[in-house]
Each structure stands twice: as structure tokens, then as C-alpha cells.
């Protein structure tokens, strides 16, 4: 007997179209983050207070450039495979069932990288704090809020636009 299709508030993540990379970054930074599948489950479910992304990471992919947020908490849970959290504390290996969290306002540049030779799958969860901004310690870039809500621009650290 066939299973009936799911209807909101439930969904099958496979039905959510994946996005590839972060089209918000200036183009010169895309190569580091393009290549995996990020399924924006929170958006598909109509969530407005926090986002949930299911991310398939092939070998070599990183979730973002190393960064930190002024107002957004972030949480990552490894569903399968292994990834490396790279933060100011150095690299740490996470395997299936492990998690990492990054408190808002803590200036600890971080990202998740798949340094293994197999795909990994993670859940990314972050709140959608208004007026959040970001710092990128390894590159000449900052992320600034435009209107106190969810519109942002990327700038050089001296304030000039990309």
C-alpha cells in the first residue's frame, strides 16, 4: 500500500529543492561553499523565528567562510559521516551524533568543513535574530544589517561595498 504524500505541518526533506552554495556572498568567495545540497527545511515549513537546513557536504566542502554572528545563535548536529569544526580553538572532529554550538556575540570565527573522503550530512539550526551582523576573521569582509530586519549587505572591513 502506498504511503499518502505528506502535508504541512509535515514534509519529506527530499521534496525540498536544494540550493547550492551561498549566493549572498560576493562571487569571489563562492568556490569554497558551492557543491553540496542545502535544503532549507525551516523555510519550507514556514518557520520565521529560526532556520533549519539539512546539508549534504561532499568531501572538501565548507558550510561557510569562517565567521561569527553578533546576535544569532547557531547549532550544528552531525547526522552521518564526519566533519571538522574549525574555530578559534582549532579543529575538532565531529562524527554522527555529535553537535557543536556557537553563541551569539561570541567573537569565535567558525565553520564546518568536510575533510573526509565521504559525504557527510548535518543539520544547521540558527535563530533569525533581527539586526544580526557578522564578522569574517580570515577574509576582508563583514556582513552588515541594512534595515534592522533580515536585509544584509557584504562590505570590505573598511566599509566599502563589494
Provide a quick synopsis of the model.
The chain has 162 residues and is mostly beta strands. Helices cover 2% and strands 37% of the residues. The chain has a domain at 21-130: Jelly Rolls (Sandwich).
**Helix run count:** 1
The low-confidence runs, each spanning 5 or more residues with pLDDT under 50, are none
> What value does the average pLDDT take?
92
Counting helices, strands and paired strands, the structural category is mainly beta
What's the shape? globular
Numbering strands along the chain, what is their spatial order in the largest sheet?
1-2-9-4-7
- CATH level 1 name of the domain at 21-130: Mainly Beta
Terminal CA distance: 55 Å
Q: Fill in the CATH topology of the domain at 21-130.
A: Jelly Rolls
- Under the CATH scheme, the architecture of the domain at 21-130 is Sandwich
Largest sheet: 5 strands, antiparallel
SSE order in H/E notation?
EHEEEEEEEEEEE
- Relative strand content: 35-45%
Q: What is the fourth-level CATH superfamily of the domain at 21-130?
A: Jelly Rolls
Any idea what the radius of gyration is?
Answer: 16 Å
Spell out the key features of this protein.
single chain, 162 residues, mainly beta, Jelly Rolls, 5-stranded antiparallel β-sheet, 4-stranded antiparallel β-sheet, 37% strand
List strands and helices in order, with pairings.
Blueprint: E1 37-40, H1 41-44, E2 50-57, E3 68-69, E4 74-80, E5 82-87, E6 90-95, E7 99-102, E8 111-113, E9 120-127, E10 134-136, E11 141-145, E12 152-155
Antiparallel strand pairs: 1-2, 2-9, 3-10, 4-7, 4-9, 5-6, 5-8, 10-11, 11-12
Amino acid at each position: 500500500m502506498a504511503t499518502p504524500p505528506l502535508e504541512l505541518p509535515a514534509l519529506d526533506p527530499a521534496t525540498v529543492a536544494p540550493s547550492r552554495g551561498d549566493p549572498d556572498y560576493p562571487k569571489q568567495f563562492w568556490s569554497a561553499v558551492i557543491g553540496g545540497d542545502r535544503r532549507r527545511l525551516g523555510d519550507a515549513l514556514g518557520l520565521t523565528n529560526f532556520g533549519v537546513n539539512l546539508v549534504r557536504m561532499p568531501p572538501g566542502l565548507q558550510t561557510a567562510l569562517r565567521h561569527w554572528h553578533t546576535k544569532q545563535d547557531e547549532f550544528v548536529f552531525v547526522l552521518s559521516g564526519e566533519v571538522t569544526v574549525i574555530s578559534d580553538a582549532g579543529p575538532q572532529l565531529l562524527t554522527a551524533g555529535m553537535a557543536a554550538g556557537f553563541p551569539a556575540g561570541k567573537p569565535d570565527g567558525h565553520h564546518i568543513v568536510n575533510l573526509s573522503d565521504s559525504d557527510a550530512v548535518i543539520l544547521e539550526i540558527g535563530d533569525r535574530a533581527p539586526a544580526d551582523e557578522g564578522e569574517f576573521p580570515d577574509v576582508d569582509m563583514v556582513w552588515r544589517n541594512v534595515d534592522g530586519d533580515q536585509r544584509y549587505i557584504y562590505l570590505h572591513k573598511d566599509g566599502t561595498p563589494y
